[in-house]
């Protein structure tokens, strides 16, 4: 077992290159399904929670490539679950298609999300939207980029100064959604939902949105994007410390100037 006290460049460089390459390859497979949606069989995992073979095939490619190249690493995927998770091992945390609903409806707001966690920290994050050919990438301590250009969060200081991404699913109550929408509007803000938490968080890292909140998001949906936001100068609630690589819970992530105000919009848990 390749156990290290903390990753160094020799450990992370190949993993970062692989994450970018695999995100592109898997994104290309997902895009081929996106262009032939009529051929997909759609199943339901629950209320407003569909899945198809596009999700499963895309995750299978990601899992195969990463576990073959890095056999000592653990893997967590939305569709295939957790393998080998251990505090002393690095862990890939993957959502093959985040934004499954927009994907299946032929809408462009979906992405591949790949995170790498080691020593209780998110070390790598890669998000790829194949429809727009936009790849968002970050390494801890090295900034965040969109197609190679440095990203930086908004300079907003009030919620009234921009749009806030709002995630919502059947995993939380209509009352929680009403609370968030009401308090965001009362602060002069406005919400924006695209159906992919990962991609909406990436829009926070680019500065297009000033923040994101959701009452319950899963680790595979958000860990890569949290690193994008933090490396672009933003702030996030301690999602990984609170939920680990397989759990889910609330998240607030934003430009630093609106973080405290945005946290007050999240219902108390
Ligand atoms: C999505 C999440 C989003 C949530 C959606 C959905 P999926 O993930 O990224 O935060 O609001 O309901 O759960 O299911 O498309 O991979």
Can you give me a brief rundown of this structure?
The chain is an alpha+beta fold and 269 residues long. The protein has helices spanning 9-34, 53-69, 100-104, 174-186, 197-205, 219-231, 239-243, 259-263, and strands at residues 42-44, 50-52, 74-77, 81-83, 91-98, 111-118, 121-129, 134-139, 144-146, 149-150, 163-167, 190-192, 211-218, 235-236, 248-254.
Order of strands in the sheet with most strands: 4-3-5-6-7-8-9-10
Work out the strand percent.
25-35%
Q: For the report, how would you describe the main beta sheet? A: 8 strands, mixed
Q: Which regions are unreliable across 5 or more consecutive residues at pLDDT < 50?
A: 1-5
Averaging pLDDT over every residue, what do you get?
96
The CATH topology of the largest domain is given as Fructose-1,6-Bisphosphatase, Chain A, domain 1
The distinct ligands, each listed once, are:
L-MYO-inositol-1-phosphate
Overall geometric form: globular
CATH class of the largest domain: Alpha Beta
Radius of gyration: 17 Å
Tell me how many strands there are.
15
Class from secondary-structure proportions? alpha+beta
Give me the CATH architecture of the largest domain, please: 2-Layer Sandwich
The proportion of residues forming helix, as a percent range, comes to 25-40%
Number of domains: 2
How many distinct helices?
8
H and E string: HEEHEEEHEEEEEEHEHEHEHEH
CATH superfamily of the largest domain: Fructose-1,6-Bisphosphatase, subunit A, domain 1
């Amino acid at each position: 077992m390749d156990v290290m006290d903390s990753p160094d460049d020799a450990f992370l460089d190949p993993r970062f290159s692989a994450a970018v390459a695999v995100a592109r390859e898997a994104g290309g497979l997902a895009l081929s399904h996106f262009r032939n949606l009529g051929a997909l069989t759609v199943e339901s995992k629950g209320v407003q929670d569909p899945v198809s073979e596009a999700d499963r095939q895309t995750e299978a490619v990601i899992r195969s490539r990463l576990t073959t190249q890095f056999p000592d690493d653990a893997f967590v995927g939305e569709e295939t679950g957790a393998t080998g998770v251990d505090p002393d091992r690095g862990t890939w945390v993957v959502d093959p298609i985040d934004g499954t609903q927009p994907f299946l409806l032929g809408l462009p707001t979906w992405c591949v999300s790949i995170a790498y966690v080691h020593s209780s920290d998110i070390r790598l994050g890669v998000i790829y939207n194949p429809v727009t050919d936009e790849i968002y990438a970050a390494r801890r301590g090295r900034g965040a980029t969109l197609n190679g250009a440095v990203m930086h969060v908004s300079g907003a200081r009030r919620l009234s100064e921009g749009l806030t991404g709002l995630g919502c699913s059947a995993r939380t109550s209509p009352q929680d959604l009403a609370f968030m929408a009401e308090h965001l509007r009362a602060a002069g803000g406005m919400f924006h939902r695209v159906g992919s938490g990962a991609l909406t968080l990436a829009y926070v890292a680019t500065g297009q949105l000033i923040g994101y909140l959701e009452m319950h998001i899963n680790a595979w949906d958000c860990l890569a994007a949290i690193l994008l936001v933090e490396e672009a100068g933003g702030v996030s609630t301690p999602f990984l410390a609170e939920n680990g690589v397989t759990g889910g819970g609330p998240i607030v992530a934003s430009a630093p100037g609106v973080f405290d105000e945005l946290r007050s919009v999240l219902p108390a848990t």
